[in-house]
Amino acid sequence: MAADRRDVRPEFHPQGFAPVSPQRRGLLRAGLGLGAGSALLAGRGLRAEEVASPPAEAPYSLSLGPGVVDRVYGQPSRFEAGVIRRNVPWLTASPETSISFTPLQHQQGIITPSGVFFERYHAGRPTVDPSEHRLMIHGLVDRPLLLTMEDLRRFPSVSRIHFIECPANGGMEWRGAQLNSLQFTHGMIGCAEWTGVKLSTLLEETGLTRGAKWVLAEGADGAHMNRSIPLEKCLDDCLVVYGQNGEALRPEQGYPVRLLIPGWQGNVNVKWLRRLEIGNQPWFTREETSKYTELMPDGRARGFTWPLYAKSVITFPCPEMPAKGPGIYEIRGFAWSGLGKVAQVDVSLDGGVNWQRARLQEPVLPKALTRFTLEWRWDGRPALLQSRAVDETGFVQPTLAALRRVRGTNPIYNKNAIQTWQVKADGTVFNVQLA
Amino acid sequence: MAADRRDVRPEFHPQGFAPVSPQRRGLLRAGLGLGAGSALLAGRGLRAEEVASPPAEAPYSLSLGPGVVDRVYGQPSRFEAGVIRRNVPWLTASPETSISFTPLQHQQGIITPSGVFFERYHAGRPTVDPSEHRLMIHGLVDRPLLLTMEDLRRFPSVSRIHFIECPANGGMEWRGAQLNSLQFTHGMIGCAEWTGVKLSTLLEETGLTRGAKWVLAEGADGAHMNRSIPLEKCLDDCLVVYGQNGEALRPEQGYPVRLLIPGWQGNVNVKWLRRLEIGNQPWFTREETSKYTELMPDGRARGFTWPLYAKSVITFPCPEMPAKGPGIYEIRGFAWSGLGKVAQVDVSLDGGVNWQRARLQEPVLPKALTRFTLEWRWDGRPALLQSRAVDETGFVQPTLAALRRVRGTNPIYNKNAIQTWQVKADGTVFNVQLA
Questions:
Q1: For chain A, what is the domain count?
Q2: What are the respective helix, strand and coil percentages of chain A, to the nearest 5?
Q3: Where is each Oxidoreductase molybdopterin-binding domain found (chains A, B) (predicted)?
Q4: Residue B220 lies in domain
Q5: Which member of A13, A59, B187, B205 has the greatest number of CB atoms within 10 A?
Q6: B28-61: per-residue pLDDT in tens?
């Protein structure tokens, strides 16, 4: 009987499990052999003593865990408690007008988990009862609409995978601040599968009258966050979404409904969407005059700078995820473009002198995070890692020096510069800016 | 000043917000107009009185919610508290050897939220410390390996979107039981973006010796769940995954590491994976002899029936999501195949007499849930809704009658039959089986 212990089931042994039998341990030991001499093994930093030793008989494999009744809505393992959104308290006047950052250093695929998708509030996060919420569409239309959430869900629906990025992502670096962190330099971004209705479908329902050229989107938050959007973009690929990663939108993302303006600055993707007004010119709201504009070197301000251009960053190694001694690694990162698909990503190990083509992970979707990887045989000498994205329109991600030559150091927004990570001999990684 | 209230920011008014000014209310009212006469509007069940009335000034739009510091790991809105996994207590002897069901009736895109991804345990859910966990690969190999999680993450990585389905999904219906629920008839499935290492990469590292033909996968749960898998499949598209939907695998899905055997029965995707043994023949474990086999009408049992064939189901309307009176709706559902991509889905409104081609939502990925939709102008008369998937190999989803002719009524597994939802005149939906 003892040799068959591993097939014992709890229904027969309600008291729990006995340790694996000694015979079985011997079998495992014998099966392991001693062949730990592979060069590849050594290259990956595998330790010979581990390869030659039997597996630990960890207590977990001998205990019966809970069953299906304890977690009707699951959570991450308690060993992942460090994978959380973080914020910078000194960055803004109050937490209600602030931002939290996605832990990109831990993100493994192109989907950002809804639990850690970055937040940006202009006046806190309202709690909205979906049965009370209405979306009004009015202005230069034939048939104004006042829609309940139930109404919205009856329209033809689509699902799309897109990123949303705050244009202030990395904005502290225009003047030279260097937070030594991937999360804080690039974490104002997330990518999700969004589900909702094409805005063009809703506007087909209302009809448009002569002169219709702009749409004002307004949120139900305390700030009544509002932005003017050209009608052409609205009729192209914009969505009014109620779903995110297979479930209802999270409150942080505008529950029960938000705008999705693929590839454009995050703030235009108005959350807790309650009103769309169709007009013949932009409204020049506070958010597009005193905010979300860029002061240029000649004293003029650029406004309505909506699309986010090609950008990329290496997520391993990075300040939070150092290398551990020489050996074979895989450099990993994300690339994205607000203009379409990522066409190519190159990686440099020497601060931009030489470049190698990285592998892009399928599916490569327009205006979505795209994962790239490159094998890296690190000899243990200091390195300067960079990634450079090119999108399908031919746009090449610029250096920060090139951006500054055109835009100076006044802006906060639209910093899509190449990031340099300095890897020191001990494997630690630092955020540096090359001259 | 009053007219500009909506632009007030909390940094200037720390005490909160005053109500929207009366002038502004008047503006909204005027802007709405009265044009509610659209036939399409009426078709969608929009209520004229709502279209003509101003938006409710709900309290939520006037209050300042919390900011970025209260939820470092977010949760769904409290209004979504009903979107949870559910289980059937009488289905199994104990919750530790049971299953919970995905609320498919609420799933909006192809990604199943990790929080509600179905669970299946053979002996409860162990809590595994990733720093203690090891994966052993041994047997007919040149270089046995004992890998830490850190080792695993250093190998070249891939991310793929695939479904996992328990072959018992819908199994209660072989003999005629009819749970009136989408969640309980089809909820033993989930689809996620998985990240990890190709199993072929790991086997390249160990090398394979002469005679290697089968792989035994074993879990670290109390059951030491184990299955034999042909080497050919392992070298094709199998993964050893540690990531799910952008974050670490959830404990319910085998944290910190599981096998992913795309398109094959869920139980073969061994969770809490701790051992892979390479051999020259199958092990005929308990899970492939007394369990996960199908008793055929002639008294023989089919075993090793791994792939899940083309299948689909309508998720709206369904028993949990009834129709609300005549009008225009969108029929929605999921299709999938363990053999590759979904090529086509047809929908019938009359129990399989006439069929219409449904629209497939991009991206259509191999061995992944695929969303389909079809406009439905319901006249309010009783209907019998069905969907029928065809995959890229030409496999056509069969009727239950056709399946029973071949396999009888003894099996529990691999019921991929066409589902019929009966819509009654009042919009309620019932699970029925056609003769």
A1: 3
A2: 20, 30, 50
A3: 122-282
A4: 86-302
A5: B187
A6: 333 333 233 343 444 554 443 333 333 444 444 4
